[in-house]
Amino acid sequence: MNLDSRIYIAGHRGLVGSAIHRELTRLGYTNILTRTREELDLLNTNAVNDFFAKEKPGYVFLAAAKVGGILANNTYPADFIRDNLIIQTNVIEASRINNIDRLLFLGSSCIYPKLAPQPMPEPSLLTGPLEPTNRPYALAKIAGIEMCWSYNRQHKTKYLAAMPTNLYGPGDNFDLNTSHVLPALIRKTAEAIHANAPKVTVWGTGAPRRELLYSDDLAQACVFLMNLDEARYSTLLSATDPPLINIGTPRLAPHHHPRTGNPPNLGPRPQHFEQLSIEIGQLTRGPVLPAIPLPLPRFSPPDPKVVLTPVAALPKIAAVAADIPHREQAIRGSILHEQLRQAKLQYF
Prior knowledge:
By secondary structure, this protein is α/β, with parallel strands linked by helices. It has two domains: 7-166 and 212-247, 3-Layer(aba) Sandwich (Rossmann fold); 172-210 and 251-284 and 298-346, UDP-galactose 4-epimerase, domain 1. The chain has ten helices and 14 strands. The protein has helices at 15-27, 45-55, 70-75, 77-97, 135-155, 181-194, 215-226, 230-234, 314-321, 333-346; strands at 7-10, 32-33, 59-62, 102-106, 120-121, 159-164, 166-168, 199-203, 209-214, 244-247, 272-276, 284-285, 288-289, 308-310. Strands 2-1-3-4-6-10 form a six-stranded parallel β-sheet, with helices on both faces. Strands 7, 9, 12 and 14 form a four-stranded mixed β-sheet that branches. The protein has a two-stranded parallel sheet with strand order 5-13. Strand 1 (7-10), helix 1 and strand 2 form a beta-alpha-beta unit. Helix 2 (45-55) packs parallel to helix 4. The longest helix is centred in the N-terminal third of the chain and has 21 residues, at 77-97.
């Protein structure tokens, strides 16, 4: 991509899209195309086609999606599979019609089987049953990968699918009914501090483990992939394998139990985190293992212990991060990033 290339970010106000927008801006790209949901409804095929025909982007980051945590996926499974299939179909087909040079489709590590080997390599796709709690969303994302692969084979496009591990950062969803685990815990802890509450109720057993990746690190990887020279980019496109690359770390930390007690210097923080036993989702998700050793920048954590986090430790991490207001516009991602890293080191 040249600095003046026309680059469309679908979903530029979300966790991933906003991070890509920040990274492109930081690098000096001057022709970034964005539209809010009110300006362009990606569920409207005609509107999407009209936008592409008028704006003629050369590159597309497809980060728009309907996303949510366990409760949202269980409550609205039809919405998750329907909306995601429509959004990605509209954008991918409009990209084909308008001869988009490169498209990067953003997926999720939930595409891999519930009992996938750890770390999860790309070839484990479709080798076993999915985690039931988010299967509709995962199937939609798998369909997006298949679309990119099919379009490449039939229409000679150059569409790539990137599968990041579990993300956090600025622009995250902090709604308690629809968010993922870390933002929900940050909000619960922040509100407990504000209310001077003695305890916080969290979901699950604490047994699941997750790899966590900062959204700006993912954005650097996405821009890196889109800027690969033609020869290296072509190695990711195959007639025999999906155009799929994991974004994460190839290292798997052993299962450590978090130490008891609270992080230092917490002041009047909640002293007890009460477990509420409900569906916990996939027991272990991540790290994801890229098949091709690309020199992706910055997202190998500085210490192997930071790679995989027992969910039982996350309330402690949330307590450290809770000084940052949970409202989206007030999140200072770099501070949260460092506090999260330090808290994970502290509690292994």
